[in-house]
Amino acid sequence: MSGRGVREAQVEATRAAILDAAERLFAEHGVHTVSNRQISIAAGQGNTAAVGYHFGTKTDLVRAIAGRHAKAIAEIRDRVLAEAGDFTCVRDWAACTVRPVTEHMAALGSPSWFARFNAQVSADPALFEVMMNEDDLVSASREQLRNVLDRFLPDLPHQVTAVRVLMARHLIVQMCVETERALAEGSATARLNWEDTASDLADAITALWEAPVTRRPGDAASK
């Protein structure tokens, strides 16, 4: 390997170490309570300005962490959709929505930090938007899944759809947090299997989407 190649490999290794350290610290303590200096030290960097040098702002760092996971999840989603063929029911759709996330989590091994990082970022409106933008950049298949749901539930009002999208996302995020934590801690009281978590989530999300809509006086009747 040339001198340039060695240097590039060193830079990539440093960036990976920073991303790993930042993801863990953000997951454990929250994004805004962790300093770049703490991340640099946790990543084994003698230069405490390494985070700013390699990634810029904290938002840029969050974007980089989200981006590497979004790419991996999008690749799984594309494969899952290709394997699924034609959907026959909402449960098929729900399984394809959940499995890319849980399969990615399983591939990370244990302990992992992404689910808890995701939960921390989701609590901040600005950072949540950053994370969603990263997913949209790499995954056209999310729009394909949305179109499938419209086919099964064509009469669901837009306002109800928007609320249930949020409900489903929070359910996936929080149940992944619970499973990730249980695996890391060796808890015997929670699901210790990502396949079981995926199945439970698909069942619950199916029930959520197929639940009746209780209209209140003054609610819009049209989509």
Write out key terms for the chains shown.
10 helices; 223 residues; mainly alpha; 74% helix; elongated
Task: Tell me about this structure.
The structure is a single chain. With 223 residues, the chain is mainly α. Helices cover 74% and strands 0% of the residues. The protein is built from ten helices and no strands. It has helices at 3-29, 36-42, 50-55, 58-84, 90-108, 114-122, 125-138, 141-152, 158-185, 194-210. It is elongated. The protein starts with a helix and ends in a 13-residue tail after the last helix. This is TetR/AcrR family transcriptional regulator. Residues 18-65 form the HTH tetR-type domain. It comes from Streptomyces malaysiensis subsp. samsunensis.
- State the end-to-end CA separation: 60 Å
Determine the structural class based on helices, strands and strand pairing.
Answer: mainly alpha
Secondary-structure element sequence? HHHHHHHHHH
Low-pLDDT residue spans: none
Mean pLDDT: 89
Helix proportion: over 70%
Q: Shape, please?
A: elongated
What is the count of helical runs? Answer: 10
Number of strands: 0
The value of Rg in angstroms is: 20 Å
Strand content: under 5%
Main pleated sheet: none
